[in-house]
Amino acid sequence: MEREEEREKAGLDYILIAGAAILWGSVGVFLRWVELPGKEHFVVFIRSVMGAAFLAGLITARGKRDELYPGKHPLLLLGSGVLLALHWVLFLKALNNLPIGDAEFITYLAPVLVALLSPVILKEGLEGTTLLALGLALAGMALISLTGQEGGTGSTTAGIVFALSAAVSYALLLFILKYLREDTPTLTVSFYQLAVNALVLSPFCAFRDFSVSARGWASLAVLGMLHTGLAGVVYVYAVKRVKAQHVGIIAYLEPASAMLFGFLFLEEIVGWQDLLGGFLIVAAGAMVIRRAWERPRPSV
C-alpha cells in the first residue's frame, strides 16, 4: 500500500506541473494587456515584488518563519534568483520581438537540452518514452511556429538571440531547482528567487513612471499573485518528485495553451497546423503523465 500511495502522489505531482504550465500559457495575453513593449524588466520586477509579498505573507500565516532562512545552499539559492530574473526578461523580450509561436518554439528547445543532459548531471536514465514524447512535442512546436502569422514589434535577429538565451537559462534553472529541492523547502526556494528578482531589477524600475493603465495594473496583479506566486509555489513543490526530462516535456503544454489563449483573448488566427501541433504536444504530455501511473504495482 505504501508504494501504491507513493505512485499516486508522484502522478499528482505530474498533474500539478501540467496545470502550472497551462496557466503560464496565458502570460503572453496579460503581457500584451500591460502594453509596455521594450520595458519587460518592469513587468518582471512587479511580478517579483507581488509574488514575494504573497509568499512572505503565506509563510508568516503558516507560522513557519524558519522558512525565511535560506537553508544549506544560500549562494546557489541567491544565484538561482538572479538567473530566474534574467530568464524572464529574455523570454518576455523574445515574445515582444518575435511572433509568439516562433518565440515559444525556440525557447522550448530547452527540454531537449534537459533530456540530453539529465543522464549526465542528475544521473537519470534516458527513457524511450522520453525520446518519443520529446519528438512529438518538438514536431508540435514546429507546426505551431510555421503558421506564418505576423507578430512581434522588434528585431527578428534580436528576438532569436533572446529566445535562445532564454532556452539555455531555462535548462540551467531546472537543474538548479532539482538540486535545491533535495533539502530546501518549497516556500523558501520560491520566496528567495522572487525576492532576489525584485532586488536585482529595482535599480532599473523603482521610483520610475512607466505609465501603466488601469488594465495594465490589473494584468500585473494577476501575473504577480497567480502566475508568479501561486503557480510558482505549485511548480517548485511538485518538481521534486518529477524527473527533469519529464518536466521539460510537460512544459510544452505552456506554448500549446498559449495558442489557445491567444485565439480566445487576442483574436489570433488558429490554423490546422496549430491544432495538429497542439494535439501532438498534449499527446506528449499525456504520455509522460501516464508513465507516472504505470510503475509496477506492489504484489499483495
Question: How would you describe this structure to a colleague?
Answer:
It is a single chain. By secondary structure, this protein is an all-alpha fold. It has one domain (2-293). Helix content is 76%, strand content 0%. It has helices spanning 2-24, 27-34, 40-61, 74-97, 100-107, 110-121, 128-145, 156-180, 186-205, 214-238, 244-250, 253-265, 272-293. α4 packs across α9 (186-205) and α5 (100-107) crosses α8 (156-180). The longest helix has 25 residues, at 156-180. It starts with a helix and ends in a 7-residue tail after the last helix. Residues 296-300 have low confidence and may be disordered.
Task: Describe this structure in a few short sentences.
The chain is mainly alpha-helical.
Quaternary assembly: single chain
Measure the end-to-end span: 9 Å
Number of domains: 1
- Mind summarizing the main beta sheet? none
Portion of residues in beta strands equals: under 5%
Mean pLDDT reading? 85
Structural class: mainly alpha
* Fraction of residues in helix: over 70%
| Tally of alpha and pi helices | 13
Shape assignment: globular
Give unreliable regions as ranges.
Answer: 296-300
Number of E strands: 0
**Radius of gyration from the alpha-carbon trace, in angstroms:** 19 Å
Order of helices and strands: HHHHHHHHHHHHH
List keywords for this structure.
300 residues; mainly alpha; globular; disordered C terminus
